[in-house]
Amino acid sequence: MADSRLSRRSLFAAAAGLTLSGEALGGVARAQPDRAWPDGTCGAVSLTYDDGLNSQLDNAVPELKRLGLKATFFLTEQNAHWRLPDWEALARDGNEVANHTMTHPCALSGYSVGRFEQAEIDPMEGYLDSHFGADRARTFAYPCGYLGIGKGARHARYARYRRVLERDGVVAARTTAGGPNRPQEAVADPLHLHAFEPTYEGDGVAPAIRYLHETVAQGGWAILVFHDVLPQWRTDGDASVATHNRILAHVAALDVWCAPMGQVFDYVQEHWGRPARAGGAAASGR
After folding, report:
1. Chain-centre distance for alpha carbon 82
2. What does the alpha-carbon distance between residue 98 and residue 128 come to, in Å, rounded to a whole number?
3. Which of 91, 146, 151, 286 has the most beta carbons within 10 angstroms of its beta carbon?
């Protein structure tokens, strides 16, 4: 993804359109029988929430609990510390908490690798280890979806970011754009997992439903991204409580496996690629 904010919906529409054209010709890609999702489901879904916002605890978590769904919450220390006991309780209840940096920097052209690592990544990993255990899933969400550190060519900036994450033991990292993840591609490039912000440009349910149905058609892995979950949609990235709850209800009704991002990635590694990482699902008791 480029370092400028592109339309989330246009990026997804382009990817979805390619697959839908294949479906129209009768070529729907599905998981191989010997590499099936748990319980024979048709795909996987991970619900992810960015920034460690109070509205997620107040408005999203009750609906997740009601439907029996577990999610991944990418925290920043600057937000999470205000209600740390609530986040700790959430993790004890089977949800995943993971790294979204200390202060959520977006444009990183002025950062060196050392400064970014020492100011944003290392201390956040330490914070999460201290409060949520060192055996937690080592996953990451790129703030603002930006993937590069410093200046220079794109591939060089991206490589710097990857080196930082790899040094801190991050095994899977999520962006904010792209179509459903095909398991083989997720294994091949785990630090560039696609994700979709269904309410980034408006408070509608239809974009999420299209994305989820595309996931089922492919036998793939959907990663949904939410930020503030508020009584009313106000601006880019928000979701109203009503829309958020309708999306979750649709997930619950689909023939999919819904699980936190780290848990799904462990499964993908085991069944489509390398052996699962040490300290993964078995160690965490998931």
Report:
1. 23
2. 7
3. 146
